[in-house]
Amino acid sequence: MTEMTYRQAAARAIAEEMARDSRVVLLGEDVAAAGGVFKATEGLLATFGPERVRDTPISEQAIIGAAIGASLNGLRPVAELMFADFAAVAFDQIANQLAKYRYMTGGQVKVPVTIRLVGGAGLGFGAQHSQATENWFLNIPGLQIATPGTPADLVGVLKTAIRCDDPVLVFEHKALYALKGDVPDGEVLIPLGSAAVVIEGTDLTILATQLMRQRAQKAAEALKARDVSVELIDPRSLVPFDFETVKRSVKKTGRVLVVQESPFAGSWAATTVGQVVAECFDWLEAAPTVVCAPKTPIPFAETLERRWIPAEQDIVEAAMQLLAGKRAAMAT
Amino acid sequence: MTEGGSGADTETLGLALYRKMVEIRLFENEVQRLFLEGVVRGTTHLCQGQEAVAVGSCSVLRPGDTVTCTYRGHGVVLAMGSPMNRTMAEIMGRSGGLCHGKGGSMHLTDVSHGLLGSFAIVGAGLPVANGAAWSAQVLKTDAVTLAFFGDGATNIGAFHESLNLAGAWALPVVFICENNLYGEYSPLRLTTPIEDLSMRASSYGMPGLRVDGNDVLAVRQVVSDAVDRARAGNGPTFVEALTYRHRGHSRTDPAKYRPQEEVDQWLARDPIPRFEALLKERFGIADEALLAVRVSSENAVQEAIKWATASPHPTEEALLTDVFV
């Protein structure tokens, strides 16, 4: 085991895959000379050189398109979108080109593109640099979506994504970059579609990723003090989604609470609640519920942003309501 | 083949270019007929009149070179050597099609012949062409990529991002703008503040050249020089080929917005009769030889239609395959 930050985990995963496979190349705004605006690609230019580690113009369509075209010719590009919000600028390349390339061509090509997107609120970056945009892509067949929430998970999931022959969007949460955690030495690979049972419990299943997972973990401790046994599950990837692990947990607890750092509509939380109702109805002791962000853009002022992001206390209260059999309004 | 060339090689090349243009013309005429008969569904964008751009450009490529083209791309597909029968089958949505019926007219792709894709979102192929060219740099091959697009694409963001990146990275890519004077139904002069689109190249540090897109040899010469330049590591070139589509934008468009005088002028500059005249007058090719090409091309198109018609519709199992590897 080596203790490292979530930031160092990103660099380690990319460096290991670049060392292992000369076809892996990295491109994005300020990823090379500057080592990334979040310093998550520091040292890669020095190790692998400017052919394989490329700074790009501020041109998100050109970045994603270049990654697609290079992948068609056998490279395995890792493209960075400095802020996940900027995916909107490259939406055509991601949604219409990347996601559909293999299908539209009848399987003629593999498109092994990894896109790293830095998302998440909490640092006062305002409405256009704070969104957890993974839900934007949920309705686009052809994309895999990973949301690692610890240094070890980031290493394992990012390495798997780079080795994957299909497009994978790997979301990194900017508020977690300083988070420290133990990462096993040697090869760490975590398959997409394998959830982590972070805490085992019997009364209530909580599902959460990234920053919400960290908060849910603290909430679970607070709930433990109230004699509530929480089972905390981190799906780690939204597509593919490990519903089997969720199902096993719900069978045991009969209660589900999903926590997400974005509004309710059209989200993985809403989808998961729908699937739980459809497939686990007979085991449910209470209606599943969601703790999510209000349906507003993300505000700048610290007091407002803090209120916008679901907090530990929100999770605790929702859990207590759920256990008391009270129904919550969904779309706040 | 240059205008000063002569001899057996020249004759062979001349007839090969002529055959390709004739095949594309007849192919497109038949796609149009099959549409009217309801055999081809959805929509399609035909390229009659623009054959010389595709044929002249693709004739200079080597194995390993690649292209991206547009939804008006049947001509480029055939010019790259994709089999006519599988191309027709794809347009008809059959399982024997290039993409097993999952792409259709607007997404014809044949990687085995260097055709990386037909892009139906205006301008979207340019960033991808850059990526293919970038991979040639990284893998140190001397492959070149051609990116075909229309005049309308020069007003979309992806065009500007792509030319800038290609210029900055000196990518081995040639941008070929098929300027047919109309972006869908709108004349270029109403949507674009400049008439000479090749001027745009200078903003991105690359040569911008205009060529008569209805002169197959002129296109071939300009693109050949640009490809040589790219292959030698000297970066991208922007080529604006002036041409005209004989038909409307898509099957539902009778193109009544175009003045008859303009249409007549361009029909008089049809690239195929022009090249016929050149082959006869300057290269001494006999009428019989040209007729033989037309007859065998017509036969090839009819064979392709027969093959495509016999190709089965995809079965339901195909619905769920090829989303992921």
How would you describe this structure to a colleague?
The complex is a heterodimer of chains A (332) and B (325). Chain A contains 11 helices and 14 strands. With 332 residues, chain A is of the alpha/beta class. Chain A folds into 2 domains: 2-183, Thiamin diphosphate (ThDP)-binding fold, Pyr/PP domains (Rossmann fold, 3-Layer(aba) Sandwich), CATH 3.40.50; 196-323, 3-Layer(aba) Sandwich (Rossmann fold), CATH 3.40.50. In chain A, helix 3 packs parallel to helix 4 and helix 7 (210-224) packs across helix 11 (312-323). In chain B, strand 5 (182-183) and strand 6 (186-187) form a beta hairpin. Chain B is of the alpha/beta class and 325 residues long. Chain B contains 11 helices and 8 strands. Chain B has one domain: Rossmann fold (3-Layer(aba) Sandwich). Helix content of chain B is 44%, strand content 12%. Chain B has helices spanning 8-36, 51-58, 74-79, 84-91, 125-139, 157-169, 188-191, 216-231, 260-267, 271-281, 287-310, and strands at residues 66-70, 115-119, 145-150, 173-179, 182-183, 186-187, 208-212, 237-242. Chain A binds chain B through residues 25, 51-52, 54, 56-57, 59-62, 64-75, 77, 92-93, 96-97, 101-110, 141-142, 144, 165-166, and chain B through 66, 68, 97-103, 107, 109-112, 116-117, 119, 121, 124, 126-139, 143, 145, 157-158, 161-162, 164-165, 168-169, 321-325.
